[in-house]
Amino acid sequence: MLPLIVFAQQTGGLSGLIQLTYQKDRNKDIDAESEKNSFIQEYKLQYQGHVYSPRLLMYSIGGTFRKEDSDTEESRAGKTSTKTKSKDYNFKLDFIQGTKYPFTLFKEKVELPTWTIQPDQTFQTKQTSDRYGLFGNAFLGKGINVRYDIRQDNTKSVGQTETTDRRNRSFMFGVDSRKEDKFVDASYNYQHNFERSKNEFEAINDAKLSWGLRGKTTNFNMDMSYNDNSFTEFTTSTANMNLNYTPSSDFNSNFSIYGNKIEQKENKGYFTTFFGNTTYKISPYLTTNQNLMLYKSTGDFGNDSTQSLTLGLIFTKQAPAGITYSADTSVNGTAQQSNTTKDRNSMFYSLGARVSKFFESINSEANAGSSYYYYHSSLGGKTTRYAFNAGFISRFIKNMTLQSLLNFSEEDTIGDEIEGASSETKTRHLISDNSIGYFLQLGYRGSLDAKIGTIFERGTLPRTFRYANLTFRYAIRRDLSANAGLNFYKESVNSTRTITGFLGVEYKLRGIIMNLKNELWKERGPQGVKTRSSTFLQASRPF
Description:
This protein is mainly beta and about 550 residues long. Helices cover about 0% and strands about 80% of the residues. The chain has no helices and 28 strands. The chain has strands at about 10-30, 35-50, 55-75, 80-95, 105-115, 120-140, 145-160, 165-180, 180-195, 200-215, 220-230, 235-250, 250-265, 265-280, 285-300, 305-320, 325-340, 345-360, 365-375, 380-395, 400-415, 425-440, 445-460, 465-475, 480-490, 495-510, 510-525, 530-540. It has a 28-stranded antiparallel beta barrel. It is globular, with a radius of gyration of 32 Å.
């Protein structure tokens, strides 16, 4: 009989990745040109297992090594060659998982240098981070859970002009209890941050408490929090309450109160907000809603208050023959008081209507709608807006979608009088969007998707926008697939034409995945021609 000793057994086993990437990027602007060639090697290795039993100890250890060689040639900076090696290590120990008192130890270390290439200089920044800690839970029964988290985070960055060296420590302790009809959650988090290079210290205290009740028709939630920061000398205390009451499917109400206290050096401010909303379904076609908002602020940050009430009515009805009618109206009154600006009383009302019809025989839909909005302020501000929209979408022809949309709006806005003066702005927009789309399923292996259209805009800023796009996807074999795309845009205001395209191929051979992708972007405008091209070739072998 073998003695009972602790021995390692394979659980997840060994996994990893070997990946080689070549990328070539070329940029050409009006007065500059650049080319970058990069070869990237990436190797990942991870091992997972357990000691004696997964319920005793599960472990994971791994790392990544990455090497990048790049040659960059820029018309102003010349030619630059850079070599970068980055690596990271990690391990995690999960103790007594599946029991009442599981906990985890972890550690991560990353070394990541980066290069900055500028016309007059090239320099490297070395970044390192070292994180380790402990976290876990204690399930005490009757839905009570205790959680804790202790960790250290050291980060350092050394560059040509600036160096940072931060030592951050944090501690979290929390307790929560959850049942079907109620819950309570309390937590405290402390952060100790120290910047060694600048000798700056920061302590952050954050405490939270929340609880709630659940019923068939009523839900109530409340949470309170406290946060203070020694570096910014900023302290915030908040308390929020929310009540939702839904006695039936026809009536719903929601009420919320938000309280906030802010302290910063010699200043204090108190902020309180109340939101109330009710919705009542009068009939199957008619619904009314009411919204009330009350806001009050006092203290050194200002004394302001706002009262706002909105009443709304919505009508919706579906008639025979695929016709749907809808209409809505709303009225709002708002009063604002402040010790720094003039008091303002304002109101607005809006009206809207819409109708749509579906023609089943031709698989098409037509719709039209209009709206009116009016706003008036006691300080002389005024806004009047009219809007109309219509649309037609047809799929009568197989695999083809015809779409025509029309939107018109006109607005006249007069600003509030400030020191006896105000401004007026008038805008008018007419937008027409017409397009034809085509989609073809190429058996089970691929698809072809194309669309062409034109957008006309008239009014304050007239312009014409033409566009076309084509996308192709096809699986040649189970291990070989290809995709391609082409897009064209033309804009009349700046006389700009843009063409983008891509071509990609993926091939799988005995666990090796090879990807080839080429992208092109070209823009022709008044200032000349700009081009961007990228070639990407990658071979990867996960295991």
